[in-house]
Amino acid sequence: MRTSIRRSHRLMALAAVAALTTGLLAGCANDSDDGSSDNSGGDGSGKGEITLTIGTFGVFGYKQAGLYDEYTKLHPDISIKENVTTRTDVYWPKVLTRLQAGSGTDDIQAIEVGNITEAVQTQANKFVDLGKEVDKSQWLDWKLAQATTKDGRTIGLGTDIGPMAICYRKDLFKKAGLETDRDKLAAQWKGDWAKYVDLGKKYMKKAPSGTKFVDSASSVYNAALGGGATRYYDKDGNVVWDKSQGVQKAWNAAMTVATSDMSAKLKQFDKPWDQGFANGSFASVACPAWMMGYIEQKSGDAGKGNWDVAAAPTAANWGGSFVGVPTAGKHQKEAIALAKWLTAPEQQAKVFAKQASFPSTPSAYAGLKPAADTTAYFSNAPITQIFSDSAKTIPTQYFGIKDQPINSALTDVGILQVEQKGKSPEQGWNAAKNEIKDVLGQ
Amino acid sequence: MSSPKQALAHPASSAEAAPGTPPGAAGGARGRGAPADADSWRGRFYRWDTKAAPYAFVAPFFVLFGAFSLIPLLYTAWYSLHNVQLSSLDHQTWAGLDNYRNLLSSDFFWNALKNTFSIGLISTVPQLLAALGLAHLLNYKLRGSTMWRVVMLTPYATSVAAATLVFTLLYSWDGGMVNWVLHFFGVEPVNWRESDWGSQFAVSSIVIWRWTGYNALIYLAAMQAIPADLYESAAIDGANRWQQFRHVTVPQLRPTILFTVVVSTIGATQLFGEPLLFGGVSGSKGGSEHQYQTLGLYMYDQGWIIGNLGKASAIAWSMFLLLLIIAAVNLLLTRRLRKSQ
Predict the structure, then answer these.
(1) Which residues of chain A make contact with B306, given a CB cutoff of 8 A?
(2) Model pTM greater than 0.80?
(3) Which end of chain B is more exposed for a tag (fewer CB within 10 A), N or C?
C-alpha cells in the first residue's frame, strides 16, 4: 500500500516536472509577445482567416489612424496584429537575427532610415522585391533610392519622412524680446544654422528665468546634419565622416550651443526631456514633422497655443521609415498587398492627419490636412505648407552600414562631453573619434 | 539543522531497502498472489524505476542547462575566435585570437573592467555590512516582526526597470529630489549621470537598495540557527550586546557571510540592468566617458549596438574566465577559513 502511494507521488512529480519543462520551453519560443509588445489592432472580430503581423518600433500611427480596422473591413478574411518594440536599438538586432535565421519574422517588418542601408547591403535577399509590385514614381526619388539595391531591387516602401522645421514657444520668445512672427523669424535665420544659434545668444540675454533657448546641442547637430550634402559615408560607401562638410558644419553649430549657456542640456527621448516639455524649460526645438505629435503629448494643455512653427534654416530630413516584406513570411502575397496599401498616398495622408508623420509620396501633399487640434495647438501655423516646402528641397543623402553607431558616437559621446562635462570641443571630437574607431573595428 | 537532515534521510533509507526482497512492500505484493521473485517484470520495473527515477528528476535541469547554457557557451567560444558581424551571421572569417588581442589593447575594455570592479566594491561592501546590521536588529524580539521582514524583501521583489526608473528621476540633474535635498545643505547640484564618481555612486545605490534586504534575510535565517546557550554563556561571562555580536554572532555566521560574498561578487561582475537603464537613451555606453560602463554593458554595446558579435563573444568569455578566477580565490579562502577554525 505504502509503495503504491509513493509511486503515484513520484509519477505526479514527474508529470509536474514535465509540465514545467514544456511550459518553460514554450515560454522561450514565444518571446515575440514580450512585455514591450502591444498585440492589438484589427477590429477584434476574429473572423479573419489570415492573421498578418507587422513589426514596428515606436508609434507608427497606423493603429491610431484606424488603418488596420479599415483594411480588415475591406478584406474581411484578413486580420492584422501589430508587434511593437519601443526601442529601435532593441528592435533592429532582433529583426537582423530573425531574418538570418529565416524564421520568427513578422509578415511585414518596419525599417528605420538609419538601418536601411545595412538592410539593403546585407539583407536584400531576405526581402521581397517590392519595386515590381508598385508604381515607384509615387515616392520621392531620394526616399526610393535609399531602399533600392545596386541591381535595382526595392526592398522597402517608404512610409514617412522627417522634413525639418523649428518649433518654438511664442510666449517665451516674446518675454525674451525676440521676434514672434513665424515668417519674420524664419527670415532671420534663413540659410544657416549658425544664425539660429546666434539668435539663441540674444535670447539668453533676457531669458525668462529658468528657461534656455534649446533643449540640447545634439538636437541642433542632428537637424543641421540632416540638411548637409554629406553625412558619414560617401556615395560609394566609403567612410568619410571626419572629412564630411555636412558633419563639420553641424558640429560647429552644436559646439556653439554646447559651450554657451543656451542649452537645457537634456538628452532627447529621456524622461527629463519629457519633463522639460511639460515645464516649458526650453524655448525652441528642431522639430521634424514626426516630433509634433510628441510635443503635443508631452507639453500638455499648458502648451496649447503657445507653440508655433517656423521654417528651419535649411531644408533637412531627420528620420523616417520603410516597411519591407521578409521572404520568410508565411503570407507573402497578402503581406505585399497590405504593405502596398499602407504606404499608398491616401493612407499616408490619413496618418498625417492623425499623427503629423509626413508622407514620402508627393502626390499626397496637395490634399494634406493636419488634425484640427494639432493646428490649434501650434497657433494655426500652416504646417502642411512649411513641411511640404522643406520636403521638396531636401538634399539626397547617402547613409552607411554603421550610420547609427557613428551618429551615436558623435552625439552621445562627443557632444555630451562638451555639453555636460565642460570638455573642450577638441577633446569632444577626439573622444568621438576614438569611439568611431572602436565602432569600425580599426 | 537537524530536522531537514532527518527528512532527507528518511526517503533515502527506504529507497535503499526497497530493491532487496525483505519487508512490507514485497510481502504485500506476494499477498496479492503474484509470484514475486526478483525476475518478474514488476520487480524488474521496480528496480529500474528506483534507479532511473532520480536521473529522470534531475534530467530536466541538465537538458535546459545544455540547451540554454552549455551549447551557447561553446558557441560563444567559437564565435569569439571569428570575425562575425550581426548583419552577416553566415559570413564568418577565422580570426584566431585577434578579438582577444584587440580587447587587451582596448582602453574601453580596461575601463569597463575597472568600473565593474569599483562599482562592485562600493555596492557590495556597504550592502553586506548594512544587511548584517539589519539582520542583527531583526533578530531581537520585535513587534510585527513578520511585517518588518516582508518589508525588507520588497525592494528585491521590485523589477530592476521600475526601480531604476524611479532612481533615475531622483538623481536627475535638473529638478531631481537628491539635488533638491543637497541644496538645503548648501551643496552645489551634482550631475549624477555624467560625473565620474557621482554616476558610479548612483548606480551602486540602486544595487544596494535592491539587495540589502535579501542578504539581511539570509543572515537572519543563519542567526536564528545559532544556539541560544552560546549567548547565555557569553552573557554569564559578562559580554555585552556588542561583544556578543562580535564574538558569537559573526564567527558563527562565517560560512553564511562567505556565501553572500560569493553570490554578491558574481552578481557584481555581471552587473548590467541597472547601469543600462540608468543611462537612458544610449545607456549601453555607460555615460559620455563610459564612466559607468561595466563589462556587461560593453559586451551589449559591442554585440547588439555596434554589431560586432565576435568581439562581444570574446568579452563574454573574458567575463567567464574572470568569474572562474573569482571562484578559485573564494575556494582558497574557504579552505583557509576551515583550517583556521
Answers:
(1) 402, 405, 438-439
(2) yes
(3) N
